[in-house]
Amino acid sequence: MSTSDVTKEGIRGAKPDREAITGAVSTLDGHRPERPTARRPGGGAEFRSYYNQPVLNQITWEPLDIAGYLFLGGLAGASSVLAAGADLTGRPDLARPLRYTALAAVSGSVAALVHDLGRPERFVNMLRVMKWTSPMSVGSWILAGYGPLAGAAAVSQATGVLPGLGRLAGLGAGALGPAVAAYTAPLICNTAVPAWHDGYREMPFVFVGSGAAAAGGMGMIAAPVAQAGPARRAGIAGAVLENAAVTVLEKRMGMVAEPYKEGRGGMLMRAAKALTITGAVGALAGGRSRTVSAIAGAALVAGSACTRFGIFKAGQQSAADPKYTVIPQRQRLRDREAAEQDGAGGPAPSGQDASTDS
């Protein structure tokens, strides 16, 4: 009977029943082949992954379902907030289309989520209990409360039935709107996907800013310029917040932020930045032109969609490449060991005993 040791470099000394070596392939002469080792551009081994295989289970969600769910949820929540504000300030031509937008967006968001789950009853099952430590449980209850309010506000607006209750429903949807726009950020950050998990500090700001930009863009498209002032301001503020948060995220995360700059994720994030900046500039310049305002609004909506799809693709890329999991883990281990050494006073000087002679 043989035993094996699990070390930082892998599994050593394992020879089970058929003399196989765990995690490796033996050659005919009994020697183990070298495992692929990733290296820094300047040289020097960085990490090892068994045959360069991913360390994490791969993301199997469909981009159209989950990235669409993230985008539409942000658009719905922010649209309800903007519609409530427009209602309270006497801008019916802005409140009306945004209420319709909120209902359409939340319906599409729930449909995308249920399609990904496979069966509608799975969404209902998530409402059996309320678990405050689970972003999915909290988010399900937020959607369950928000959806009927957004629907009642939009239906009352369209039919003229029970306008007082419809207005109260719209205000209630506006109160829940920030949570609807933001909860999907902790939802994806509460995973092992490096590009999502490590961005937990900035991601809520990215999502809220992106949702505000999209809702502002929809208001600029649908409302006359005389009443679209709040939509323009929301679009500009959202674009600034989103881009500032992404910049901080990329700087703080270091190497793990590479998927936001490279590959399909990087391409989508660059497109998002260009579109949101273009939309914000158009919002500033298009205060008197319906055409400019509509084009700028479309750019903001498209930029928000690119942000959500870019974040999704960046997560896929980081889960597929083992270095984004292995290198940060080893760095955290080294930092922890160094901190423990510092806390213990460090090793005794060479040639001296740590105790004091009497």
What does the model show?
The chain has a two-stranded antiparallel ribbon. Helices cover 65% and strands 4% of the residues. The chain has helices at residues 63-88, 92-117, 120-125, 135-159, 163-182, 184-189, 194-197, 203-222, 229-253, 263-285, 290-320, 323-343, and strands spanning 5-7, 10-12, 37-39, 45-48. With 358 residues, it is mainly alpha-helical. The two termini are 51 Å apart. The protein is globular, with a radius of gyration of 26 Å.
List keywords for this structure.
4 strands, 358 residues, disordered N terminus, disordered C terminus, mainly alpha
Helices, strands, pairings?
Elements: E1 5-7, E2 10-12, E3 37-39, E4 45-48, H1 63-88, H2 92-117, H3 120-125, H4 135-159, H5 163-182, H6 184-189, H7 194-197, H8 203-222, H9 229-253, H10 263-285, H11 290-320, H12 323-343
Antiparallel strand pairs: 1-2, 3-4
Helix pairs in contact: 1-2, 1-5, 1-8, 1-11, 2-4, 2-8, 4-5, 8-9, 8-11, 9-10, 10-11
Summarize the structure.
With 358 residues, this protein is mainly α. The protein has twelve helices and four strands, in the order ββββαααααααααααα. The chain has a two-stranded antiparallel sheet. It has a two-stranded antiparallel ribbon with strand order 3-4.
How much helical structure, as a percent, in the residues?
Answer: 55-70%
Structural class: mainly alpha
> Strands of the largest sheet, in order across it?
1-2
The share of residues in extended strands comes to under 5%
Mean pLDDT over the full residue set: 84
Distance between the termini: 51 Å
Sequence stretches where pLDDT stays below 50 over 5 or more residues: 1-6, 14-46, 350-358
Shape estimate: globular
Radius of gyration: 26 Å
Oligomerization state: single chain
* Total beta strands: 4
Order of helices and strands: EEEEHHHHHHHHHHHH
- Given the structure, what is the number of helices? 12
Largest sheet: 2 strands, antiparallel
